Each structure stands twice: as C-alpha cells, then as structure tokens.
Amino acid sequence: MNEEQLISRLRENGYKITPQRIAICKIVLSNEKHPNAEQIFEEIKRKHPAISMTTVYHTLDMLKEMGMLTELRFNSQPSRFDPNTSVHINIICKGCGVIWDYSSDTLRNKWNHIISEIGKQPIGQRLDVYIICDDCKKNLHQEK
Ligand SMILES: [Zn+2]
Ligand SMILES: [Zn+2]
Predict the structure, then answer these.
(1) Which of the four pLDDT bands, split at 50, 70 and 90, describes residue 142?
(2) Ligand 1 centre and the CA of 100: distance in Å?
(3) Of the bound ligands, which one is closest to the alpha carbon of residue 100?
C-alpha cells in the first residue's frame, strides 16, 4: 500500500490525517518482523524523535480497528504486531521469540476448504506454530 492509498483509507474510516500518524503507519506496515510496541517506538524515535509512545499506541489501535494490523497477544510476553492480515502461519521460536510468516498455495487451498466446511465467513484468524530455530538449537548445543 502506498502513501496515497493509506491516506484515502484513513479518510474513509474517518481518521484525522497527521504527518505523525502517516510516519508511524508507514513504519509499522512495512515491518514484517512482528515487533513489539517498544521496538516499534525505538524505530520511530530514530527518524522522528518528537513522536510520543502514546501517539504510537493510538496509531496501532487505529490500524487494528481498520483491520490492517493484527496484535498477537502472548501470556507472558509483550504483544507483537503483524501487518500481514492474509491467511498465514506465524512460525515462532520459543527460544529467542523470532517470528516469521509462512504461506503457500497448499495452505491457502486447505484453508479455503476448511472455511467452507465451517460454513461461516471468518473475520480474522491466527495460526501459530512453535519451534526452536536453528540458532537457538546451536546455542543449546554449545551450553551442554
Ligand atoms: Zn505473521
Ligand atoms: Zn530462536
């Protein structure tokens, strides 16, 4: 999504357009590493030191309300934010917390099949797979 599309989307949804909001949206929507709010704030501060954490939180809420961002909540760790709202699997390392997206034709085909079996139109979904990544495996090995 380019800036023009973003602005018209915000307008359609009745949100005020401010340069700060646009700057935050651009950073959040282009970060596919599933950052937490703190990491998003750090990234924004580097380019826009005047933006406050409160503005960041409000903008994250706004993107969530518009269905452009998914908040992945965890029991004992801060939420992570995912701009990929299409059907995909979050592959999550239990060791270091790295998350990456997996999607394929197989997944999409099976998913459509499952949804037709369920017989209801989904308004959202979350698919997580937990693993130990190669780096964490190496570290575990070294500690022994
Ligand atoms: Zn994801
Ligand atoms: Zn790891």
Answers:
(1) confident
(2) 6
(3) 1
Share of the chain above pLDDT 70, in %: 99
List C-alpha distances in Å: 120 to 35, 88, 103.
Answer: 31, 19, 22
Residue 65 confidence (pLDDT): 94
From the CA of 92, the nearest ligand is 2
Structure tokens that stand for 12 in this block: 């359609």
Domains of the chain (ranges, CATH numbers): 3-72 (1.10.10.10), 86-143 (3.30.1490.190)
Instruction: Round to whole Å and give the CA distance between 101 and 42.
Output: 23
pTM of the model: 0.90
